[in-house]
């Protein structure tokens, strides 16, 4: 065999939905992939956790399936890690790099937790570390931010990067149903896992935010740096309040460069937010993902597609396999981590946000003045205030002599807004703070 | 000077809007660019056509401006061509490559006309040829198709890639105004050039379609291969007909892989089409661009942003400059042309399309049967037909005893649909074919 045509050996760690899709495509599309890379790709093994299961769904020679992942990574030029979680994924990735293999991974949790260790190992061994599939599934988003926008300056990234939460919020909006009921429906339809905590509490979106912010701002941001609120506190009333503002509620991963007197910082956070129905992100329905990027020269860009699922994730993994395989053929490596900017990650209190606050108040003279004074004390400027009589309540509680006050603020430090809400809750004139939500994208 | 830190020399050909924006950003953002590349980028000259003009708007040392482009390309590691047109752009690009420089260009017309010559020269001299800015301005679309989707199979690309025509069609839709009047307004607002032929007649969109199809299908497609219809025949009546179908009219660049018994072919075409208002491309307003990609594993993806303008185009150019500069630093080259698939480009008659046809017919028994027979003769299957009384006409012509017949077909070869329309026009029962337009995206 001509050495130019000696195959590039690919090892797969993980035989689940994504691993299976990657294996099948490597086999069924072998000729086209070889033409694109310049040399054939040979699947040399698939490491799985448990022996003895029927693996016929992988559609590959059963002899390729092994439980000895340590042995497998020593026999490959490219190691594809789609196991997920911290261990054994981390040790196997590091072992692969030590053996000189480039690594393609979809492991957002590991990258967001311990990316610098992996980047350093890739540098030390002169190999590639690619991970397009870790954020927003099939949507090309990391390569555009890291490479296409490498000559521009990213100002902000707003992403809907978790399909489960988007499905739940979208369904609550279209049906008017409550949170728990909608989560159960999402589970029944396969849009939410049996234990949906990582999705619903925003851990998944926070890991993705850390990865996006690191690339966008050339700064190391880990999961622990990301402020996180999930959607479990979002009520049907919040959704209704958003509708009255001609908004929808989305769980957003927000990465912002924040100019400051002593130099810029970055704010990285995940929380539900109201966005106007006219905003491009508002039309992202069901379990789709989208990422909205604002850059100094490019202006506003949006990337939209399927954020999860075996085939879409496999598409991103295979794109990375072809890229790192091309580097094996042509020489060179892809662009690595650039963390030169090293901007400080700001605490949530310093983030500049806007709040929408609905209050159930006594309908009597002077109440609005008192409420307004609380905002003023915190130097929070009010943009609009609307007062309406509360007509009836589903829970049958007394509403006579009460009014609803809906306040939308201008931008202010989140700490000032949070303090304002705390003080309002304690005012005797305020019967209840019925809805508090940040507002984005106006 | 440490040789690792010796700057990478960048030469700019063209000092217009894009060239000026690139020059300013290279200067103002020098430190960040150096950190991202690993070595400084030094602007060594800007070649302009005419000496003596005031170039202070370029914001660079006037000594850098030269009219001797041949000399300049011999002194650079990276040559950025933003002159446009065929000559002298082509000769200068080839000369730059001969001198060992990598080339970044935004020249869609040249690439679509003579790409293979440029690719071959880049290969022969072992340099990079990058051109992200040639299609859809700031939107990262070529790198995603060529690299992110390199492990997937693109089935189709639908693009709104010409801002002028989108502005005109969007304005006709929102105002109800006619074509000529709207073009004049677009010119007055700076959205259309003094001679807008290349935009309005679809030449610009066709060049971009050729570039998109070449990358998507690993096949050489040139401008001459692209079927092209501009928007100058689109009337206020067509826009109104679209609205009645809950559609909008867009000028689309369409690249499709068409399965065939003797192997696949590709259809590459530019024409106005009705698309449903619910389609993501329908919400692309004013002069924005968007590209919708359908791939076998990834599914549907959309990329959205600004398609033109100095800063947005400069963003794409600078991203390419950083990429090819990184290759200078790290070794290697980016992935070149892959034309291995070499699929035949099908004639327009073989494209599978759907038509919307409005007919002004005699309101008498048997007319519908005659019309339906014409479709049947061509083996064109009708999806819906709607008949309505013509109430009045703006031009005051007689409408009594006449009806409007609106037919939407199923997919059929374009040649059969065109022949159907020809035959219908000649039927004595058909007073006028009032609107014919292809339908996409249902």
UniProtKB/TrEMBL annotation, chains A, B:
UniProt cross-references to InterPro entries, sorted A to Z: ACT-like_dom_sf (IPR045865), ACT_dom (IPR002912), Asp/hSer_DH_NAD-bd (IPR005106), HDH (IPR016204), HDH_cat (IPR001342), HDH_CS (IPR019811), NAD(P)-bd_dom_sf (IPR036291)
Record's keyword annotation contains Ubl conjugation: no
Pfam families named in the record: ACT, Homoserine_dh, NAD_binding_3
GO biological process, one term: methionine biosynthetic process
Cross-referenced CDD domains: ACT_HSDH-Hom
Cofactor(s), by name: a metal cation
Domain of life: Bacteria
Transmembrane residue ranges: none
Catalytic residue list: 208
Binding-site residues, NADPH: 108
Catalysed reactions, as listed in the record: L-homoserine + NAD(+) = L-aspartate 4-semialdehyde + NADH + H(+); L-homoserine + NADP(+) = L-aspartate 4-semialdehyde + NADPH + H(+)
E.C. numbers: 1.1.1.3
Keywords: Amino-acid biosynthesis, Methionine biosynthesis, NADP, Oxidoreductase, Sodium, Threonine biosynthesis
Class of this enzyme: oxidoreductase
Pathway stated in the Swiss-Prot or TrEMBL entry: Amino-acid biosynthesis; L-threonine biosynthesis; L-threonine from L-aspartate: step 3/5; Amino-acid biosynthesis; L-methionine biosynthesis via de novo pathway; L-homoserine from L-aspartate: step 3/3
Positions annotated to bind L-homoserine: 193
Protein family: Belongs to the homoserine dehydrogenase family.
Biological role stated in the UniProt entry: Catalyzes the conversion of L-aspartate-beta-semialdehyde (L-Asa) to L-homoserine (L-Hse), the third step in the biosynthesis of threonine and methionine from aspartate.
Name used for this protein in its record: Homoserine dehydrogenase
Species annotation: Marihabitans asiaticum
């Amino acid at each position: 065999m001509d050495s130019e045509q000696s195959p590039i050996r690919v090892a797969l760690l993980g035989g689940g939905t994504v691993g299976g899709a990657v294996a099948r495509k490597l086999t069924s599309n072998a000729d086209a992939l070889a033409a694109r890379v310049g040399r054939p790709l040979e699947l040399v093994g698939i490491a799985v956790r448990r022996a003895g299961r029927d693996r016929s769904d992988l559609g590959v020679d059963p002899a390729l399936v092994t439980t000895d992942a340590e042995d497998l990574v020593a026999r490959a030029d490219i190691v594809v890690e789609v196991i997920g979680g911290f261990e054994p994924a981390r040790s196997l990735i590091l072992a692969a790099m030590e053996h000189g293999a480039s690594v393609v991974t979809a492991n957002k949790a590991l990258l967001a937790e311990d990316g610098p260790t992996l980047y350093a190992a890739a540098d030390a061994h002169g190999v590639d570390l690619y991970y397009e599939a870790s954020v927003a599934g099939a949507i090309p988003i990391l390569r555009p931010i890291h490479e296409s926008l490498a000559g521009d300056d990213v100002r902000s990234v707003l992403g809907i990067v978790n399909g489960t939460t988007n499905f739940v919020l979208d369904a609550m909006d279209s049906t008017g149903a409550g949170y728990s009921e909608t989560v159960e429906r999402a589970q029944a339809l396969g849009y939410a896992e049996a234990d949906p905590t990582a999705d619903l509490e925003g851990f998944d979106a926070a890991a993705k935010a850390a990865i996006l912010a690191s690339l966008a701002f050339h700064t190391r941001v880990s999961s622990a740096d990301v402020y996180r609120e999930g959607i479990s506190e979002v009520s049907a009333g919040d959704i209704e309040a958003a509708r009255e503002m001609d908004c929808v509620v989305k769980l957003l991963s927000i990465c912002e460069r924040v100019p400051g007197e002593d130099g810029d910082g970055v704010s990285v956070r995940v929380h539900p937010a109201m966005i106007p129905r006219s905003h491009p992100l508002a039309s992202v329905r069901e379990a789709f993902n989208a990422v909205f990027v604002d850059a100094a020269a490019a202006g506003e860009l949006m990337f939209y597609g399927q954020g999860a699922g075996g085939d879409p994730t496999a598409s991103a993994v295979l794109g990375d396999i072809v890229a790192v395989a091309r580097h094996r053929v042509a020489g060179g490596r892809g662009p690595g981590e650039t963390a030169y900017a090293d901007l400080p990650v700001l605490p949530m209190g310093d983030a500049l946000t806007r709040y929408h606050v609905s209050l159930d108040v006594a309908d009597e003279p002077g109440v609005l003045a008192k409420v307004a004074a609380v905002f003023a004390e915190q130097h929070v400027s009010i943009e609009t205030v609307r007062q309406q009589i509360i007509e009836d309540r589903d829970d049958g509680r007394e509403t006579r002599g009460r009014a609803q006050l809906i306040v939308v603020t201008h931008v202010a430090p989140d700490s000032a807004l949070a303090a304002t809400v705390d003080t309002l809750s304690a005012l005797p004139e305020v019967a209840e703070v019925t809805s508090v939500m940040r507002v984005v994208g106006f």
